[in-house]
Amino acid sequence: MPLEKNQNISPYFDDYNANSNYYKVLFKPGVSVQTREINQLQTMLQAQVERFGDNIFKSGTILSGINFSYLPNYSYIKINDTQGDGQPVVPSGYKNYFIKSDLNLTARIVNYYDGLESKAPDLNTLYLQYTNSSDADTTNSNATYTKFVPGQVLTIFDQNYPLFDVNVNGGGLGFANSDSVVILSAIIVSGNTAAFANGETLTSSASGFPKATIVSINTTAIANKTIIGIKPRSTDLANSAANSSSWTLVANNNVVGGTSGATANLISFIGSGAKGLVTTDSQGIVQSITLSSVGQDYTYLPYITIKPANT
Predict the structure, then answer these.
(1) Considering the entire predicted model, what is its pTM?
(2) What is the full DSSP assignment across the chain?
(3) What would the pLDDT profile of 101-135 be if each residue is shown by its tens digit?
């Protein structure tokens, strides 16, 4: 610890000042060394050792400037043993993620307790810190909520909105581990001249290429804009010469519906960066798709399919 005694007095004259950011004292040949310089050098080295030591901790180290933070209301919810996708819940895997209701009431999961429905009331428990209040409940006199309500279906998410996993519902036949996973983000369009239709081909109006098939349309999630889920055309997936440029539309270009004739401006994509790998069995049945990169900003689910290497 630093010495309390003032050494910037006669006969020491140690006027070292840490704010000057000096790290070295240089001596000139043939010039007498001053008492002040020797004492400053000692203080300088001592200050460097102290700054290093202040950032090295071990068990039992006393830290200054630290206070306890109390949560007077430790909110929690009890959840069932099974997720919405049929998989068992994993409370330990949810810690530090966020959870929200369909009215956008959001909380951070700060802790958990493992339980079972068969041991009620000792169910799986998630401890929460609420971060906001809900949107207005239009079905209940525009009421707002500050806590989750029993019976609600809740969504756990990362604020970066990566993809967590891919569920394979029916593994097909004849695939291979060398096949490519195609993750095609949904798009946001505006300025529609007419309503788009599910199942029609969406094309860049500038060149007539690339092309994709519409699989979903959402006109309510974003005011004055339309979210369109798209997938590659089957003919492109089966074409050995086709690649991502065959179905990846271009932002800031107009797109046109092949059946409806509707046109709109493609504003942006919802999510990017996710990549996956296929795992099959000896019969070419897809067992799983592993995400090698989870990407980010997938607030609307992309369409995931496979482009076979052997067409």
Answers:
(1) 0.66
(2) ----S--SSTTT-----GGG--------TTSPPPHHHHHHHHHHHHHHHHHHHTT---TT---SS------SS-EEEEE-SB-TTSPBP-HHHHTTSEEE-TT--EEEEEEEE---GGGTTS-EEEEEEE-S-PPPBTTTTTB--SS--TT---EEE-TT--------SS--SS--TTSEEEEE-EEEEE--SS---TT-EEEETTTS-SEEEEEEEESSSSTT-EEEEEE--HHHHT-TT--GGGT---TTSEEEETTT--EEEEEEEE-EEEEEEEEE-TT--EEEEEEEEEEE--SSPPEEEEE-TT-
(3) 999 999 999 999 999 999 999 999 999 999 999 99
pLDDT computed for residue 45 by the predictor:
83
Structural domain boundaries in the chain: 1-58, 75-157, 180-307
